[in-house]
Amino acid sequence: MKIYFKLPYYTYWGQKLMVSGNIPELGNGDVTKALSLNFHATEDWIGEIEIDRNAAIELTYKYVLYTEQDGQYTQEWGGDRLLVLDPTKTDHFFCFDSWNAPGSLENVFLTTPFQEVLLKTEKNTEISNPTKKYTHIFKVKAPLLPKNKSLCLVGDCDALGKWSTNSPIILNRTDGNWWSTAIDLSKAKAEVHYKYGIYDPDDKRFLYFESGPDRIATIINSKKTIVQLSDGFVRIENNSWKGAGVSLPVFSIRTKKSLGVGDFADIKLFVDWAEKVGLKLIQVLPLNDTTGTYTDADVLPYAAISAFALDPLFLNLQSMGKLPDSNPLQKNLRPDKPNGIHWIWLHF
Known about the structure:
The protein is mainly beta.
């Protein structure tokens, strides 16, 4: 079975695109052993591998930009490119992808705070569209899709409705953040032009098309061949989300039990207050330990040595008490300071 990769990406002299994945042919996750793509046409990078398997496999992969001048490997954002391949049923699988830039605004809304809290809603209504035979898989993301709306697909061929919005192809929410559908385009004679749209499943009504030019699907008339088009993000307004929050340094949070210079234990009351007044987002500084150089530069709260090491300056030792005498860690206390606290256990 052969797998083909194609990615449009504008590069500079000394740069190249690679594909890293969880199989030996793609380096087993080691970017230094990833598959190097070849430059083709104006901005396209292409490559292929051949795998010898007797059973279905799950292939995860991502694209990597390598810059020869400094030896830097830059991976695209996310890790959700997944292929379920059955070599016994498919001879050729084409992956037509788009680079997921780490700086894309839409990626912010796919992070845990938004997915689990700020944008957490009931699952969108899904309308299945089963197809026994298919040649193309269409996939796209829509983190800012309006509530209770679905994505649909319309194009210029018979299988995609000839641009009619009366009966669009409804996409299903699958593979985490992807919306997808499988279509049989075997009767199409040339490239297919298409667009995604927004659909109201309650009213069974097409609402509007995404912005921008037509998308294009390549037609490959060959048996046991699948073309997957991973189109990145649907082109709808990405600045529609609005949220209210508060930013406050830890040392400005004061409670009756604190020492007045900021304590981590006070953050809980801060969170309770934010919830009570209807805020869903708080930002605090400083939070993590910045003791890295043992100089005056360590006061900078943005130079944390770890995302998990709490700054000891904001631990309220008095409220924590001391370890019990029966604690096995007691033997580690210095004999010259029997009442000193040398072990701190924190639970957040």
